């Protein structure tokens, strides 16, 4: 086979205090209680994911810890390759703000399903449109480097929305309409002619 198959997983739920703020690319911790409670979901992923596969993570530890939890649940441990361009959207100077403080700082109306519109660029950060460009370039590189292989990428909600937007050539506000839950699986294939999306937001065990 010449197509490259991508298995994108959103990292596990972060701890409660982090969920109260805009954490973006802050290196926040995972919720330890949820890690234990969701053991069956990790076992389901460990059985579902292809073997062998190339494994990518972002520079943030929540993606590495999620991958390690899947290994602990039964997937054979493998090298984790850090891909910097699979990191979450940077919210720049707005990172660390409580959610309630954001609206007064926006230059565009917020999106229905995300605090920022697709073209909104936080000071010192990046817009969702820029995340799509960055993520798309990373996926194209990986598709070339690992052509014909399975690539598992443990990454972020914004990054996965951006990946689907790149594959389907849709705009940033359309991408933000996609639901991508923690530990969900999104499958995509890079063929020579085009991308194909197999599923978005498939939950372990379903």
List its salient traits.
206 residues, alpha/beta, Rossmann fold, 32% helix, 17% strand, globular
Overview of the molecule:
By secondary structure, the chain is an alpha/beta fold. It has a single domain, classed as Phosphoglycerate mutase-like (Rossmann fold), CATH 3.40.50.1240. The chain is built from 7 helices and 6 strands; from the N terminus they run E-H-H-H-E-H-E-H-E-H-H-E-E. The longest helix is centred in the middle third of the chain and has 18 residues, at 128-145. The protein starts with a strand and ends with a strand.
Task: Present the secondary structure layout.
Elements: E1 4-10, H1 16-19, H2 32-37, H3 39-48, E2 54-57, H4 61-72, E3 80-82, H5 128-145, E4 150-155, H6 157-168, H7 172-175, E5 185-190, E6 195-202
Parallel strand pairs: 1-4, 2-3, 2-4
Antiparallel strand pairs: 1-5, 5-6
